[in-house]
Task: inverse folding
């Protein structure tokens, strides 16, 4: 049974590996015996991440790259190919909301800053599509691979204040289904494309809208917990198993799926 879920020996490219979720998944992947190419835009968090992965006994390299720059991604692909010859798994983790793209509680939509809208939609959507083009090509050549994208609860029903993030994540869900279909129709059943849709996890990007300066829950947090049947926020490590499943042979007939990991948030009407 364990073999069915194994990712041992697989080469995984993880974008945004210097961040919170990318770090959690990268640590999990090396402990499961995967080889990790950690990609991030800044050298410093990447160096810290790679040192951490090596300390865990992992086979890992860090490569500075920009998920919004095709030439940069091509260079990353060359480094990975030179090191391991192939890519088995692509995890598109770089992304997230940006403070400037969150509307204030009373701020009218028509005052939204266009520059912030463009940043957040581009980073999340294009920052997923471009790596799929570069690493998906390597997978198509071998007719083998698994891609996991990161959607969100914002793609299921409207979340107030985060229009750009919501639109981009909805785009990621749709693109996941589109690319799953494209890959299977053109290259057969060896390439699968899925997404996770995390519920609510307290991270650096959303801490200020979920936790008051005195440590208590904000009104927004109280609404989230009220609509989460499990009555708590998630722990970021609770995403690891879902990602591993989607990358493993256990999911070999699973493609085009957006898997909620949300304590029941998306299942519950709130009534
Ligand atoms: N944390 C949560 O609670 C939560 C919940 C649901 C979903 N998610 C999703 O999980 C994903 C990761 O979130 P996170 O909390 O781990 O975010 P994070 O800690 O900010 O990590 C994202 C990483 O990506 C890097 N990055 C930004 N732009 C990049 C680019 N153009 N090319 C390459 N790397 C780039 C960031 O670098 P900089 O720091 O320099 O910008 C950062 O190191 C996002 O898609 C987010 O929407 C997170």
Result:
């Amino acid at each position: 049974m364990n073999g069915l879920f194994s990712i041992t020996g697989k080469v995984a490219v993880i974008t945004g590996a210097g961040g919170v979720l990318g770090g959690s998944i990268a640590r999990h992947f090396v402990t499961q015996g995967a080889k990790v190419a950690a990609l991030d835009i800044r050298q410093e968090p990447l160096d810290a991440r790679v040192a951490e992965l090596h300390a865990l006994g992992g086979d890992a390299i860090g490569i500075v790259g920009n998920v919004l720059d095709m030439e940069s991604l091509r260079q990353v692909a060359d480094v990975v190919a030179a090191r391991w010859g192939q890519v088995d798994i692509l995890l598109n983790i770089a992304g997230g909301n940006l403070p400037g793209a969150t509307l204030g509680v009373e701020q009218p939509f028509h005052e939204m800053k266009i520059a912030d809208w463009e940043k957040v939609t581009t980073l999340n959507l294009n920052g997923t599509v471009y790596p799929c083009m570069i690493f998906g090509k390597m997978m198509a050549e071998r007719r083998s691979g698994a891609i996991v994208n990161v959607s969100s609860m914002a793609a299921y029903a409207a979340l107030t204040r985060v229009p750009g993030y919501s639109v981009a994540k909805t785009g990621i869900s749709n693109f996941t289904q589109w690319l799953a279909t494209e890959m299977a129709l053109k290259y057969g059943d060896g390439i699968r494309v899925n997404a996770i849709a995390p519920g609510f996890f307290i991270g650096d990007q959303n801490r200020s809208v979920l936790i008051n300066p005195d440590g208590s829950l904000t009104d927004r947090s109280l609404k989230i917990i009220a609509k989460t049947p499990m009555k708590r926020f998630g722990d970021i490590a609770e995403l690891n198993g879902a990602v591993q499943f989607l990358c493993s042979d256990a999911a070999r007939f699973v493609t085009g799926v957006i898997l909620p990991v949300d304590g029941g948030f998306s299942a519950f009407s709130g009534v």
Notes: The chain has one domain: 2-205+235-264. The pocket of NAP is lined by residues 15-16, 18-22, 40-42, 45, 66-68, 93-96, 123, 127, 150, 152, 198, 201, 203-206 (CB under 6 Å).
